[in-house]
Amino acid sequence: MSTATGLALTLAGAVVIVAVLRDAFEALFHPDGRMVLSRSVMRALWALFHRVGRERPRLFALAGPAMLLTILMSWAGLLALGWALVLWPHFPDGFRFATELGPAANQRDFVDALYMSLVTLGTIGYGDISPATDLLRLVVPLEALVGFALLTASVSWLLTVYPALSRRRSLAYEITLLREVTQRSAGGEFVRGQARSAERLFAELLSRLVAVERDLVQIPVSYYFTQGDDRFSLPTVMPWLLGMAERGLAPDVPAPTRLRAEMLCAAIDDFARTTAERFHGGEAASTAELLERYARDHLREGAVSDAGYYRRSRSPGLLSWTDSGSRKR
Predict the structure, then answer these.
(1) Tens-digit pLDDT profile for residues 46-70
(2) C-alpha–C-alpha distance, residues 71 and 39, integer Å
(3) What secondary structure, in 3-state letters, does 180-213 show?
(4) Cα–chain center distance at 216
(5) Contacts by 200-206 with C-beta closer than 8 Å and gap 24+?
């Protein structure tokens, strides 16, 4: 192999390694970054599961786990390929081969380079191929460190995803229970007749919704985990929550409850726009419309909507309310 070819392969491998490490760093520690590889995988698989999910809803629930596994496998595979390209120009002269491999080992340069990269990245280290030069004795352990770091970061990532999903399911179920309870009487009567209880509920739901929104921002892949049971599906119940919060904005509702309802409406508005801007790409629209698009993006077209009891129009220093329509930003 010529020197120019070896240099080109080394540079190509270095580019692949840096690209993967950057993507992994942004996915794990800087979710506002570009994450070219991760986002491409998530969008491609989401589109695929969308098409399949309409025919087979049970398969749609596998979208999130499939994305996690695909992203992790893509990182590992590309890292192994990148390091193999770096090591390839040094085969066979830069390595020692176990006698059991036989003389044919010297004729399988890339196969040996890829094998060496895989066992090193996986920190297996069989010892049948080992570096023979000082430079390679430094490079090969560096790959092992990268592999160990990737494994540790991947496990940490998995451990952050599932608590976020638990918080989201818990919030959805609490909203479901609230909806079932308030169905026994008109929602407006509940807010007016039990204003102090409604105020506490609004405050609790506000803090939990803010936490769920932060989870979506910090762990974008969590958006693609879906629920087959509507009781635990946040896209299903968010339109109803908006309607309940808007009832708390009526002029005859006590001021403290109205304040909490206003804060909850603002949090729902931020949540709807966050999901639109980061995931389903909804254009500027009312909060109710964005929540409906969020539900449709999760194949929840039948989401119960109780929104639209009050319309808010914003002008400098003025909030006004009327009895129909949907809430506007």
Answers:
(1) 999 999 988 888 899 999 999 999 9
(2) 9
(3) HHHCCCCHHHHHHHCHHHHHHHHHHHHHHHHHHH
(4) 6
(5) 202/245, 202/248, 202/257, 202/260, 202/261, 202/263, 202/264, 203/260, 205/171, 205/174, 205/175, 205/241, 205/264, 206/260, 206/263, 206/264, 206/267
